[in-house]
Amino acid sequence: LSATVRDTAGNTANSSNVTVSVNNLYPLANLVFIPQIEGRQVESADQMKIIIVNPQTLARIEFTIQPDQEGKLRPSPTDVSGLTSGIYDILIDSASCLKRKLSGVTLGPDIIITLPQIPIGNMNDDTIINTLDWSLLNAQWRTSNTQGDFNRDGIVNTLDWSFMNKNWGLSDAS
Fold first, then answer.
1. Which partner for 99 in 32, 95, 158, 172 could form a disulfide, CB atoms 3.0-4.6 Å apart?
2. Which of the residue ranges 13-22, 76-85, 118-127 would you say has the lowest mean pLDDT?
3. Residue 48, Cα to own-chain centre: how many angstroms?
């Protein structure tokens, strides 16, 4: 590649041996999130919703992503397009769970972020664990329905009820 270069004083120089370096094409390269679901391992079939908010401008992006085989979330460049390195608030959500928030997180390339554990038991995804969720869990009692089998042991039983009971009255983080 050859180029003509001009400095701040207006002087020019020609060169036939120029290397061009472009930085920040993907400012959040290799960003990794480690999600945690109460009572069980994160599985590659889990759908996770990530919401990233700039606390200064309130600009936000959100995307749905599935964990890899290691249980980690690795956003694509498309998922985080428009974001640059900086300080953000992050919300995480998944089916039958409550949203949780992590505030003041520095995002940048090659950063691994452990997300807060998300409580299970919100079967109707209405922001609170209450009697509506209990009704849904009760209808699935002694079945293998994965919506109510919070701990993924193959059956909706007292172990799943204990998670709902523990989280009774809790609501989404905002």
1. 172
2. 13-22
3. 6
